[in-house]
Amino acid sequence: MSDFSNQTILVTGASSGIGLASAQAYLDKNAKRVYIVGRNAQKLELAQAQLGERAIALVADVGNLAQLEQMARKIRHNGDTLDVLFANAGIAENNLIGSTTEAAFDAIFDTNVKGVFFTVQSLLPLMKLGGNIVLNASVAAHKGMQNLSLYSASKAAVRSFARTWCNDLKAQKIRVNTISPGVTLTPILQTGLKMTEQQIADFSRYLQDVVPLGRMADPTEIAAAVLFLSSSAASFVNGVELSVDGGMTQI
Ligand SMILES: NC(=O)c1ccc[n+]([C@@H]2O[C@H](COP(=O)([O-])OP(=O)(O)OC[C@H]3O[C@@H](n4cnc5c(N)ncnc54)[C@H](OP(=O)(O)O)[C@@H]3O)[C@@H](O)[C@H]2O)c1
Asked: Cα(20)–Cα(210) distance, rounded to whole angstroms?
């Protein structure tokens, strides 16, 4: 059921973390081609080398509409259409209400909200009839985690997009679902949230209490759920938010 033979897939934010693990998982399940998208060309090149020749790197900032349109043109030029789109690219930064700058607000919303919206809109003409889209939200949309008001609101917007789009795209028979990962051990903890090794270790101890499974996720565990949502095994699953958080938001 979760075989992606002959399928062409695009994953944004695929140079590390959840996106890279998902790209690898699609390839492991026989995807014909996986387009991997990110801003940093060097990081993408390393990811492409790791994934092999069925992965194609496309450098684009999802917050930049012109770059998204150029990306769509390249895929069209290759003669490809998309079976699956995983709009995963996102950034996380702390913001303190009282001292948040306009630039910090724009940075989060440009990538996490505008980026997801225009990724989907730009690639929609390339989506196959009956294809499907997975959006990456977060547990943060459901929890009032301190100093994460912008990130959390951006992810609530993402979840809302899936609700509307599964209705908007019914003529194309495109399913749209959301994955909501819990805390996952990826570079975002250090690069985005600026956590030190010690802070990550302390956070892990805290999660032993607040997560029923008592730990962070490995990116491959999120990827497995993304593959389920985009597979034929989920052929009647539409508009849902699948929490993959060890139970954190369920208690
Ligand atoms: N890790 C967690 O605990 C967690 C929990 C819930 C949800 N999530 C969500 O999962 C998604 C992936 O995050 P991750 O944890 O795997 O972090 P990550 O390892 O930092 O990956 C983020 C990816 O997104 C790319 N990216 C960031 N901004 C971009 C932009 N404007 N345009 C194109 N690509 C961009 C990054 O590449 P470049 O730097 O090259 O652009 C990178 O490939 C995010 O949406 C995040 O919010 C993560």
From this structure: 27
DSSP 71: H
Contacts of 89 (CB under 8 A, 6+ apart): 12, 13, 19, 37, 38, 62, 111, 115, 116, 119
Burial (Cβ within 10 Å: 0-12, 13-18, ≥19) of residue 77: exposed
- Give residue-wise pLDDT tens across range 158-177: 999 999 999 999 999 999 99
- Ligand 1 pocket: which of 10, 24, 36, 39 to mutate (most atoms within 8 A of CB): 39
CB atoms within 10 A of CB 95: 17
pLDDT tens-place string over residues 29-82:
999 999 999 999 999 999 999 999 999 999 999 999 999 999 999 999 999 999
- How much is the pTM? 0.98
CA of 89 to the centre of ligand 1 (A): 5
Which residue has the least CA distance to atom 42 on ligand 1? 13
The class level of CATH for 8-185+218-245 reads alpha beta
